[in-house]
Structure formats: C-alpha cells, structure tokens
Amino acid sequence: MINSILGQNVSVGASDGVSSGRNRPDKCKLTVEELDAWYGSKQVIQKVSMGIGAQHITALIGPSGCGKSTFIRCLNRMHEVSEGGRVTGRVFMDGYDIYAQQVDPVAVRRRIGMVFQKASVFPTMSIFGNVASGISLTRFWSRHRDLRDVVERSLKKAALWDEVKDKLDQPGASLSGGQQQRLCIARAIAIEPEVILMDEPCSALDPISTLRIEELMLELKKDYTVVIVTHNMQQAARVSDWTGFMLLGQLVEYATTKEVFTVPKDKRTEDYITGRFG
Amino acid sequence: MKERSGYFRRKQFSRLMLVLCGIATAFVILVLILILGYTLVNGISYLSLDFITQPSKPVGEVGGGMRDDIYGTFILVGLASLIALPVGMMTGIFLAEFAGPKAASAIRFAADILAGVPSIIVGVFAYAILVRPMHTYSALSAGVALAIIMIPVVARTAEESLRLVPNSQREAALALGISRWRITLGVIVPGAVTGIVTGIMLAVARIAGETAPLIFTALGSAFGVQGLTQPIGALPLQIYRYALSPYKDWQQQAWAAAFLLVILVLGINVVVRLVSSRRKK
Amino acid sequence: MPRESYHRNLRELQDEVLVLGSMIEKALERSMQALKERDLNLARLVLDEDKTVNKKRFEIEEKALDIISCQAPMASDLRILLAILFIVQDLERMGDHAAGNAKIVIMIGNEPPLKPLIDLPRMNDKVIDMLHRSLNAFIIHDAEAARKIVPEDDEIDQLYDQVFRELLTFMMEDPRTITRATRLMWVGHNLERTGDRVTNICERVVFMVTGKMEELNVSTY
Q1: Cβ–Cβ under 8 Å, residues A117 and A204
Q2: Is there a domain that residue A150 lies in?
Q3: Region of residue A44 (left: phi > 0; alpha: psi -120 to 50; beta: else)
Q4: Which distant-in-sequence residues (6+ apart) come within 8 Å of A48 by Cβ?
Q5: CB-CB contact of B257 with B69 (8 Å)
Q6: Interstrand relation of A225-229 and A195-199 (parallel, antiparallel or unpaired)
Q7: For the whole model, what pTM was predicted?
Q8: Beta-strand relationship, A96-97 and A85-93
C-alpha cells in the first residue's frame, strides 16, 4: 500500500485512487439491507446496510462489543441459534434473501461457510475424517474414493496437503494450532461454499501462522468471497479490499481499505485507527 | 527470617495434606482388597470349574455349582441393558441437546427422583405391573425392574458427558450445514463416548448386585433357565438364599458366589475400559 | 487516552520540522546579508551551520522512521509522517542553496560590486516570507493557506527574470563583468530554486491534510 502511494505518478489534477466516493463494490456477492439483531431484548446491530464484494476480502474492524462478530453470524444464519438470538432485515445472496420464510438455514450454511476463532477440530475424527465431515455427515452414504478426491483438493487449497498427506489417519487434534486452523479452513472449503466467513481466525495463533493464513486468504479470494472479522487493524490493512468500521452496533464507515486507512471520512474511524480512542 | 519460617510451615502443611490424601486413597484400595480377600478366603474351597459349570444340587447333597444362576445374572443384566440403554441414552441426548430449559429441569428432576427410589419398591412396582397380570414370576419382569433402576443413571451420566463436549464443536458442525441430529450422532456422542461408557458401567455394576427387586420378580429357579417368561435365578439372589440358610455347605457356596460376583463386576469394568481406550487411539 | 506517548512524539517531531525551518530562514537571511556587506566571516558561518542543518534533517528522518516501524501509523498520522519526510528533504535542499550563496560570497571576495543589490534581496525576503508561512500552514494543518502561497512563486520567477536580463545586459556591454555577473546570476538561480522548493512544501501540506496529491505549481511562466 505504501509503495503505491510513494510510486504514484503526480499528474495534473488530483489522483482519484484514494477517495472514489463509492459506498459499495461494483459487484456484490452479498447485499445486506437494514439488518437488526437482538440478544433477547438488547439490540446489538442497528440498521446495517452494506454490499460485500464478490471475490473480495472484506474486513470488519471495531472495538470489542461493537457487534462485528454478531453481524458476521447473521450472514450465515448462525446468530439465531444462540440463546435469545433474533434477526430482522434482509441479506441477499445472488438476489435471494437468505432470511425469506421458506429458506432452510441449513441450506444457507452450506453455501456460506464459517471458520471460527478457536480451531474446533473434531477430536474423535482423523484428519481425513474431519475434512470429509461436511460431506459424510450430510449425505446418506458417500464413497471413500469420492471423499478422497475432495479431501485432497481441500487440503491443497488450504495449503496443508504437503504437511499431512502422509498422516491422514492421525487424529485431527494431533496438529499444531496453525495447522488445526488450516484444517478447519479445509473442512469448510470441502463442502464448496461460495462465501467463507472468518471470525477472528488468527487471534489464537502465533505471528508466523497468522501470516500463513493471511497468505491463504489472498489465495482463497480467487475462488471464494471472504469476509473476516478482526481486531487486528494491520491484518485488515494487509489483506482486505474493503473495510467496514463498526461501533456500538452501527456501521460507521465502509470504504476501500486504502481509503479507510489513509483518508477516513468519519472522525470516529480516524480516532479508532490512530488509537485516539478512549 | 519470618518469611523463611512461613515457607517452612507451608511446606509442612502441604506435606501433611499429601499424607492424609495418601492415607485416604490407601484406605479405599484396602477395602477393595479386603472384600476380594475375605470372600476368596472363605469361599476358596468351593471355587472350581465345577462351581461355574454345575447346576445346584438339592439340600443335603454336597457339591454342585451355580451355573444357572450365573447364566441368570448375565441374562438379566443383558435384558435390562437392552431396555435401559436405548431409553437412557435417548433421554440423555434429549436433555443435553434438544430440551428447552424448563422441560430439561423437569425431566432431570424426575430422573433424579427415580434414581432415589429404593430398589425394593421398584421390585414391588414390577411385581404389580408384570408379575400379577402375567400370573408368573419371570425374567422379563426382573429385567424391567432392573432397567428402571438403570435408566436414570445412564440418562444423567450421558447428559453430563454430552454437556462436557465443548460448544465450539456444535457450532463448527452447524456452520458446515450439518443437521442437528447428525451432529449429535456423528460428532457429539462420539466425543462423549468415554463418559457415556463410564455411566453405563456404573449402571451395570449397580444392577448386577441388586437383590431386592429380584425377590419380587425373578424369584429364583431350581430348574435352571427355562425361558424369559419363567422364573429365573441370579447370583445375588442365590447368595441371599444360601447365606441365610442353616447349611454350612450352602453358606460356603454363598462366599464363593460372592467372590464371583465381585470378580464379575470388576471384570466388566476392566474390559470396557480397555475397549474404550483402544477406541481412542 | 491510549497511545499518548506516540502522539506526543508525533507532535514533537512536527515541532522539530519548524526548528529546521527556522534554521533555513536564518541561513537565507545571513547569506544575503553577507552578500550585501561582503562579510566573509558571516558567509563562513553559514557554511558551518549547514552541517548542523544536515544533521538535523537526518535526526528528523530517523525519528520518523522509528515511529513508522514501531508504531504502525495509519490515516492522518501516516500522512503527517510522509509529509515530514518530504518536507525536510526540501528544507535541506533549501539550506544547500543558502550555503551555495554563501560560497559565492566567498568566491566574490573583495571584487568591486557591479551594482547596488535591489532585486536579489527582494527575492530573498520573499522566499523567507513564503517559507515561514508555509511552515505555519504545516504546523496548523491548513491546506487552504498552503494553497494560497503557491501562486506567489510567480513573483520570485519574475524577479529572477528581471535580474537575469539586467545582468545579461551588463555582460554584453562589458565582457570584464562576466565573472561577477555570472556569480550574481547563480545567486538568483539558487533563490529561484528555493522558491520552487517552498511550493513543494505547500503541496505536501495539502497532501497531509486532504490525502490528495496535487500538482499545485502550474507556473504561468
């Protein structure tokens, strides 16, 4: 990002890369309209509307309690599973509202996958079993041969194949933290979703593992739409195309990452990013 | 200087607690050894292959074994398990995964009360609902009585074990678009299997030695195993009978049977533990 | 407030830029004074001081690098730091120009003056004034004020043009004045370049405030 600023040719007239004035990407995979969410009687998301770009990495940043984790769970209908969770509003994927009456949440979750902060590998299953679980536990019967192809493909996409190809039968829990998280990513990819949601995927990892997963995200965005929640601003700056800043359940600012981190429009965003928050 | 003596005192106290814990543990092991030892010493004269393979002899005749009663115990435990395991497990699963908070606490309450009902009352209950209408004592009614005792134990330990499985696994499985019941059967139950097995073992060990309900339901049989709708003998029942009898011969057989029963329960524990630890690998 | 010490360091660094700026202003004043009064000692002082100027510039750059590598500055903080790095570069160059003028004073030595100096001191004063105001705009983050300074560079260019033509006339009329005239032309050239540097500084101030990179120096000359 800094390279692009320093290397930019100064021409007559202002450079238009920084403040483009768009409020959502041109091609949106998910469109959120007036989303509200509650825990019981407490409203935690307030009228959020945004467009998530197709094959983009979209980052959500904000202080603790701002609602970003809750919001991302609304995108794959996981929020309603929580105690007292309730959602109103609409979320469109490819034109269909995933909150429409007749829509099955389970079907939504097969198209919009999720990776969590704590890598929750299934301890009773092997590495192979874990990756295949999304398929083996949804189909009545699956051929081992088919599963093997899917497992290999998913592990390769998650940049884990080389490390585990000789020990696919070992229990999933025998891997290191960073590997387990990549295993969870492989598991999520195996069901071939279109969108991958990541809720602070690197919070529990060491810096090297974190960077590897960030590299992985950049690879993944070629085939999937990625949304990540992170409390690490540098991470958001490094990997994302668009960034949204949330505060107290509201979407304060949403723009290209470059704009948000060089010329944020809202003072609250500026204060948060420069650490003047407090 | 004061600090040093404080450290010393703490160390002494810690050592004292360690010793006390050691004594308590030793006591527990000692009791087990004593039981095994006492029954063994007293019944040793009757422990032989014959004891296990021979049916009982009439009064006055020396010798004989408890073959039929051993079979009986196995049959009754098997029957009770057949009824109690599915019912108990499903109750446990329901409590842990699917019940709302109010329903769950009501069911739990009921299970805990059932677990506290004296086993003799359970026997009387089984007598009333099965023995009377069927006009006969039977293995079936005994199995049902024992199952009623087993169910709350299985259900509660199953529930507790299932709850120990971290919620993150349920969430992860949900996020993969797997349906609730498959998550339960494919991810949660396997994850709780050691705990569930322990619960089952506890239940089986408990009922293997129950005598009171058998008095009202199985009755005991001098003619061997005759069928499920007929009276049947069982080890604890026979121990009770023989121990209270005036015949020295029978009393010694009771000791031997007692030893056998303890070994049986011990054996069940050991075998199941071995199997489940191999499963873990 | 979180990051109190980081933001204090950032403010102090901006003040350091002003310090460097005032060193440049003094150098420009002194070099012109030395030229007017043929004060060789003053000229040598300016040359000495230039070393301090360079040192100060590297100090500021190092501190800025420190903050960038350790504090991961974002948004306005990042723009301030980048602006600082560019501005001190321009200031140091301006210092070189002032030192260059001082060198010329020494080279002229005791030669008789060609003519009374009028335009050159005017250029110098104008440059010093523009520099002062642009650094003001920098410290108070005023993009408008910075923008307004830029067109005034035209005045300096005009004055240079005048000086150039006048000296050319001298040289054409009397070839013996060529050396002296050329030297004075060089002083004028230095001052004209210094004026351009000030407009660069103004561009950086605008960037710092708005995030836009604009070429402001559309000279009518």
Answers
A1: yes
A2: yes
A3: alpha
A4: A32, A34, A35, A36, A71, A89, A246, A249, A250, A251
A5: yes
A6: parallel
A7: 0.79
A8: antiparallel
Taken in order of first residue, the domains within chain C and their CATH numbers are 7-210 (1.20.58.220)
For residue A246, pLDDT beyond 60: yes
Using a CB–CB cut-off of 8 Å, the residues of C that contact A are 1-3, 6-7, 72-79, 82, 210-215, 218
As a whole number, mean pLDDT of residues C146-165 equals: 94
Contacts of A72 (CB under 8 A, 6+ apart): A60, A114, A197, A199, A227, A229
For chain B, the straight-line distance linking the first and the last C-alpha, in angstroms and rounded, comes to 53
Counted residue by residue, chain A has a size of 278
Contact (Cβ atoms closer than 8 angstroms) between residue A18 and residue C212? yes
pLDDT tens column, A111-120: 999 999 999 9
Q: Which two tokens stand for residue C138?
A: 């920098």
SS3 A201: coil
B186 touching A, CB under 8 A? Answer: yes
Cβ burial of B277 (10 Å; 0-12, 13-18, 19+) is exposed
ipTM over 0.95: no
Taking only the tens place, the pLDDT of each residue in A52-88 is 999 999 999 999 889 999 999 999 999 998 888 999 9
Using a pLDDT cut of 90, give the percent of chain B over it.
Answer: 42
Q: Which of C74, C215, C218 sits opposite A261 (nearest CB)?
A: C74
Residue type (1 letter), B150: M
Q: Is A206 left (phi over 0), alpha (psi -120 to 50) or beta?
A: beta
| Residue found by looking up tokens 């034109």 in the block | A95
Q: Is residue A61 part of a domain?
A: yes
Task: Kindly state whether residue A4 falls inside one of the protein's structural domains.
Answer: no
Closest to B179 (Cβ–Cβ): which among A106, A108, A122? A106
Residue A12: inside a domain, yes or no?
no
CATH of the domain at A74: 3.40.50.300
